[in-house]
Please model this.
Amino acid sequence: MTEITDRSLPLAVEQIVLRWGDLGGQWGVNRSVAQIQALLFLSEKPLTAEDIATTLGLARSNVSNSLKELLAWKLIHRVPVLGDRRDHYEAETDLWQMASRVAQGRKAREIDPMVAAINDAVAGVDAQGPAISPEVKARLKRMHAFVNTVDHWYEQMLDVPPETLMRLIRMGSKVVGLLKFVSGKDRSD
Model:
């Protein structure tokens, strides 16, 4: 576990950085990557790799690799600092942009290959004749419809302004109640 060596950090910042690192592991993200992202997000000024390594008690090579990963996800960026030739980094601080970039990256790595595999399987299911039972065909077609509906919904949501999405999210169960009222059903289609 990383031990924060910079005692000038406020306790709340230290706790978030450490906890964010723990959560990163649960999300499939390297602990150091998550801690660095949290530290930069909560930092009021851009930090160098050396600053990060010293503050978090990490090896410089670990910091360098973690920064490359965060740059690839577009969760941080390099910023110039007048009079200093070293690279300085700051985090994306727009929470909606952060969430969108993570969702887009995960979708490309995890969801898109699944959608392609299901599409390919369904495209060839009828040609296999009696080798696949009618029940299995029906399940594959339901899976295909579900996955493609969710994928299409995701693509539509990319065009919705963040303020509108936040209003929709805040409405929560009211939307479900409205849909039940409008459709006259107890479940969604």
Q: What stands out?
A: The radius of gyration is 23 Å. The chain has two domains: 11-91, 95-158.
